[in-house]
Amino acid sequence: MNAHFCAVAPNFRIMELDLDTVPWYDDLVTAKPEIEAGHLLLPARPGWGADVNEEAVGAHPSRKR
After folding, report:
1. Residues with Cβ within 8 Å of residue 38, at least 6 apart in sequence
2. What pLDDT digit, counting tens, does each position of 2-61 carry?
3. Taking a C-beta distance cutoff of 8 angstroms, is the pair 24, 42 a contact?
């Protein structure tokens, strides 16, 4: 949703993504963000452009610190 907002905001310049994360991060959603030549491609799917993968979320429960 942020990407779509940023795409239409006339004074928007840079949006950062945290790509340095756990190896299974992309498994948490049904469609991962597409980046081409350093640019995020806007998804044509509604809402977030992906659904939560409940099975993957359940496979990685949070831990107490």
Report:
1. none
2. 888 888 999 988 888 787 889 999 999 999 888 899 888 988 888 778 899 999 999 999
3. no
With H, G, I as helix, E, B as strand and everything else as coil, classify residue 19. coil
Q: Sorting pLDDT into bands at 50, 70 and 90, what band is 63?
A: confident
**Domain positions in the chain:** 2-59
3-state secondary structure of 39: strand
Distance CA 42, CA 24 (A): 22
Distances (CA, A) of 14 to 6, 9, 17, 31, 34: 9, 11, 10, 22, 16
Contact 48, 27 (CB under 8 A): no
Q: Are 29 and 51 spatial neighbours (Cβ–Cβ below 8 Å)? A: yes
